[in-house]
Amino acid sequence: MSSWRNFVLRIGEKCPEYGGNDDFKDHIETCFGAIRRELDYSEDDILVFLLQCAEQLPHKIPLYGTLVGLLNLENEDFVTKVVENTQANLQAALDSGNCDRIRVLMRFLTGLMCSKVLQPSSLVVLFETLLSSAATTVDDDKGNPSWQARADFYITCILSCLPWGGGELVEQVPEEIERIMAGIQAYMSIRRHVSDTGFSVFEDIYESNQSDNEKDFLEDLWSRIQDLSNNGWKLDSVPRPHLSFEPQLVAGKSHDFGPISCSDQSDPPAALSGIAFGKQKHEAESKYPQRIRRLNIFPSSKNEDVQPIDRFVVEEYLLDVMLFLNGCRKECASCMVGLPVSFRYEYLMAETIFSQLLLLPRPPFKPMYYTLVIIDLCKALPGAFPAVVAGAVRALFDKISDLDMECRTRLILWFSHHLSNFQFIWPWEEWAHVLDLPKWGPQRVFVQEILEREVRLSYWDKIKQSIESAPALEELLPPKGTPNFKYSSEDGGKTEHALSSELIGMVKGRLSSREIVSWVEDSVLAVHGFDITLSVVVQTLLNIGSKSFTHLITVLERYGQVISRICSGQDKQVMLITEVSSFWKNNTQMTAIAIDRMMGYRLISNLAIVRWVFSPSNVDQFHISDRPWEVLRNAVNKTYNRISDLRKEMSSLKKSVLSAEESTSKARAELSAAELKLTLMDGEPVLGENPVRMKRLKSHADKANEEEVSIRESLEAKEALFAQAVGEIEALFISLYKSFSSVLVEPLSDAFRDGTLRRTDAADEMPIDDEDSSAMELDKENEKPKKSHAHGDRSGNGYIVGEKEQWCLSTLGYVRAFTRQYASEIWPLVEKLDAEVLTKDVHPLFLKTVYSGLRRPMSDSV
Known about the structure:
This is Nuclear cap-binding protein subunit 1. This protein is an all-alpha fold.
């Protein structure tokens, strides 16, 4: 990389390029000198690279803004190109709805305004454009309030610029910025409050109105900006390097910013039904999602030096770094620990990372990414961050009973993987008390599931050794994971044992699946009936494939037809899954993998899996084990992935069809032009060019036409598969919600009255502390919680929620999780779901849970 690129990229960092110096003024002067020397030779490269750095390293925008300001003194034409390119990029981002790019480019424009590059009035016009669009959108008469998510996003973009340039705007154009603030205040008065019900990390089913009384994200940000304004726009988290160069910068030309237009507003639903409104609202919220839901897991004393607006700015820094450096682990960690702020922020950094890991409905990146970020931060800050992470785990563990079920699963997966990178070291004796809790206690189940996941990542004896400080926890370890093969001895019956041995011999003799099918139908099924046939075939083939994942896949590929032949109907497929579960009853992971692979090979259907998951033996485990839920998650996710992949393939093929049509049209036009052209042959004029070229043009036109026909046929085939997949996913969700409704109706009626949890007698006698979770105190020495949450697991007599109540809470939690995660597929089915499942006969709490997962108001059910 050339030296000027290094200077631009590393500006603001304590690095060799700048001699280990961290003074921003020196950095900017050094970088400016390097750029000025190269500007005449590499102007285009510098323009592209500088804009790219400003967009992808937005925590350095004040430095880049000042750098451009100095360049403005030397080369106005270059800076004009910077402004014009930024304007074009912002317009393209607004047209495509690229939220991150819109937000960052507006911040960059604010930085340019601070450095006298951009006219303040131009920035105000940009703000007014977005404000006008937002106000029109939420207007009931002129706009489409279902798209409030986009309007809120525009206002958020305006407000998030003010920490970087609010003071300068007030100083230079006080009346204009006052007009903007008044417009935002007017917008806040007409928009609808956004409730986090169903999307909060912590949520009690019996505290339904709590989130309605709290500020939503935009209301909170507006409050912080108002406080900042009242404080004279002073904050500690935004560097202002332009002030050091202000005497020079004022001599530069301030550029105007071209006009910007917001994307066209979506038409309101033709029929003002709740469903039509809800569908558009879901589309808007999917395209303009809320970036963060704050997770206040530490006591306020841990962040007492951080002002509310500084917290917002640091969160922006951290989220931007994780967004733009997601492919560079080391670089990401380095930037996160070196933010341009003057106060410590380890606790805020941990809360921000966990808020993303647990963000609902889904995190911006795969959970594995956050695992790696946390690991690298522990290595980068070995004296501070590991203790902060441990404190976060303890705080979340203390409130685990109120943690959303999907978040609980993510936390289990993250923590088990995190420990696997640190020799599985954890003070397990702190959690040994969970053995005194009932088997359904959330804390006990949490520890049990972590140990099960750790065994998957290592081996049983290693995990047993890791809990030596609390040997009693061995009770929660899973079985050693060996297969439960019925015919390892003659205990399973001499006849079955002999048949199994014969089948093993056939497989070892490499008989084809057709030959084995023939033997099964003639010698086993006809003689011994279906039950014995199923048991012998499935148990034997699974045993042959039990050595490894590869062995299992090989067996299913070679002999899946045998299983398919004897398990053709859904009832038989349910029995097949039961047999698989029996064989791997000691190994949850292999159970899930075997069933998932069988679904992949179309040996079992997703509907059969739903039926099996909701069989009585599995329903009894809903609140004490993740085993049935893992199988169900895999089945729904695989079905969803099929339809998602088909959508992508169809979209690609449609683009290919347009390209092929263009090529065919061009080839035909060339051929027609050649055919109409007069050519002299033997002195006589004839139509058409020379035969060789005509033959080549005709061949090219035919080939282009054939390619177009081929692509159209592929598209038609994909559309047929897509139609089939749509039918499959519709049947799956209808079956799933019918099953949920069926198993919940009686327990809910018994455990809840008027939507209120009926507690056990022991619970009624226990004092419950109802203070807000943010007041939870931590022991300074080891970060242990001093008091449990109101509905935590620990008390004098054990867990305060009875088994039936906990079963209901857990199952409803999974209803909400599935609804929330697959809302984009469920909304098109809402009418059918209302007609067949969500009728007036369903329990109100089940209905409320489904509605909250869809963010659908309960008024729609009236």
